[in-house]
């Protein structure tokens, strides 16, 4: 029988987990020589770094409520189960890009995993103006590999249906996304917050904007109804850890089957927000033109690597339910296969812009904001950056089919950065 759930603290980790062989190996054989530090800065969970004579490990434990809000918002512990299952699938589909899982305990809702060091959360770099060489390549390929290999393009019917059923139970975390991302920003929802009064006018016009409301619900329907592939589900720049030369993706507890464009759209939307936040950090950290341009280059390179890797997998690993090779290559119709690929990539690109723009809105108008913008202390300056991001977000959602490449979007971003919407 498993023990009843109990949240850990820095003083109980050794006593509760000291028997685990993997922690004895990674941290040290005697738990009385371990120390623990709670470092969770996300919205939901406890995260401990456990240190001992042999090294370090991460212990991540779900709390029975939303940490950001408190116990007035209960949240099932089972999210640790989905995070564990997503992590092991990502490790298979995109090896090297996620921390290694050492141990999972379902009854304690905890995952013991590799401590990534000297990595930092990418948002810190985006605030501080630090560049990372391999970031775009890793993220483009990570998206292509996890999304392609987690879909009907790669999986057979049995595996696919079983997995869809498993992740279909991640109900409460999907519910958070459905409401916080697609609905709350577009009305005066209770938990919303924005820079006020500076943004009040622009927020009112966005909420009265019929085209935007229709588009947001169009993308909500896509998120809810199009179970195309296994998503990370929360692929923002706070879910990425970096060093100068390494990039890893963490925190897939929102994993669910959804549309191809969702993860990559959320990711791009977060980079575009970081781009617009740069002007807010110039006073304290110096001119950011070069860095802002680097962020846009990263968005272009992410899409380039995504497209290249997705195309490669399409040509070499298309063994699943969809686009059966017997209909294409085996008939000598490689061109038809290439046409189908282009069609899919165009759809993913258009959807990514939709999801990306909506992500930008919810991070400025909803409950969960981003550090790069929130850390701009001067409220007028912050609001000016946020207003640009809101307008840009609307533009890429509404006119998504007019923009054929990330370079055109980068051009739009540079133009919007020069504008003042307040
Ligand atoms: C109540 S949870 C708020 C947000 O934090 C997570 O990281 C997800 O992005 C979620 O939408
Ligand atoms: Mg997270």
From TrEMBL:
SUPFAM superfamilies: Protein kinase-like (PK-like) (SSF56112). It holds the Pfam family APH. Its EC number is 2.7.1.100. The keyword ATP-binding applies. Keywords: ATP-binding, Kinase, Nucleotide-binding, Transferase. The keyword Transferase applies. It comes from the Bacteria. Homodimer. This is S-methyl-5-thioribose kinase.
